[in-house]
Amino acid sequence: MTAAKNTIQIMLVDDHALVRNGIKSLLEDEEELTVLGEASNGKEAIELIQNIVPDVLIIDIKMPSMTGIELVQQLTTLNLKTRFLMLSMHDSEEYVLQSIDAGAHGYLLKDANREEFLKAIKTVYEKDLYFSGDVSRYLVNRYRQKIESKGGQSSTLIPSTTVTTDISLTKREMQILQLAATGMTNQQIAEQLGKSKRTVEAHRFNLMKKLEVKNLMELINKGQALGFL
Q1: Across residues 59-78, what is the average pLDDT?
Q2: CA separation for the pair 145, 148 (Å, rounded)
Q3: Which of 6, 38, 89, 202 could form an S-S bond across to 12 if both were Cys, CB 3.0 to 4.6 Å?
Q4: pLDDT single digits (tens) 91-105
Q5: Which residue(s) pair with 87 in the sheet?
Q6: So where are the chain's domains?
Q7: Is 113 a residue whose pLDDT tops 80?
Q8: pLDDT tens for each residue of 196-217
């Protein structure tokens, strides 16, 4: 397939043809996305990627012979421009952290809706990181553990920066930021504060807009840099 100019070029790796067809069907109406090719296992993917170098490789984490994590480990040694987005039905901390250590740029759960799927692809393509839902909680917990083990020093997982700003947060926004930093989900924060989940989501949206961040990891990092945490 010849990719249209200025589109995000995608390659799929999944051992289930039904899943690959479903993803292609989901993406085919998006003018800015083009599926260049597909592979049913890691070996096929390695062979195909020598000729097709996609912008984003969407990889199933559980495959026979070679797992998605093992595939990413091998592909990172090739120094490709390709970004790796893991797709999995498993939200276990082990899989998430192993994927990151292997070199993945994103981790998306298979029950994600169309909007989140497209957001994940575009975020990863723009050289940012994307981790859906509760996945971010594992990263925050890992980050906090590293900080504690280093006596409060910043972890390399989220680079520390010094920021000067006149941004101010409301008392409620401060509460939500601090609770989010502990790894709590929106639902857990809502229960803690006696508010609705929708209210917490609205405050969190405003927080991210104020701090000009795109995801939870950036929110925690920026919050620390500004002295809110």
Answers
A1: 92
A2: 5
A3: 38
A4: 777 888 888 888 898
A5: 60, 108
A6: 8-132, 153-225
A7: yes
A8: 888 888 888 888 888 888 777 7
pTM (whole model) above 0.90: no
The reported pLDDT for the residue numbered 63 is 92
| Six-digit token string for 34 | 């083009």
Q: Is 106 exposed, middle or buried (0-12, 13-18, 19+ CB in 10 A)?
A: buried
Neighbours of 172 (CB within 10 A): 15
CATH architecture group of domain 153-225: Orthogonal Bundle (1.10)
- The CATH code of the domain at 8-132 is 3.40.50.2300
Amino acid at 195: K
Stretch 122-149: mean pLDDT: 69
Task: Name the residue type at position 36.
Answer: L
The residues pairing with 107 across neighbouring beta strands, listed in sequence order, are 86, 131
- Tokens 């990891």 found at: 217
SS (H, E, C) the chain: CCCCCCCEEEEEECCCHHHHHHHHHHHCCCCCEEEEEEECCHHHHHHHHCCCCCCEEEEECCCCCCCHHHHHHHHHCCCCCCEEEEEECCCCHHHHHHHHHHCCCEEEECCCCHHHHHHHHHHHHCCCCEECCCHHHHHHHHHHHHHHHCCCCCCCCCCCCCCCCCCCCCHHHHHHHHHHCCCCCHHHHHHHHCCCHHHHHHHHHHHHHHHCCCCHHHHHHHHHHCCCC
Residue 62 near residue 68, CB atoms below 8 Å: yes
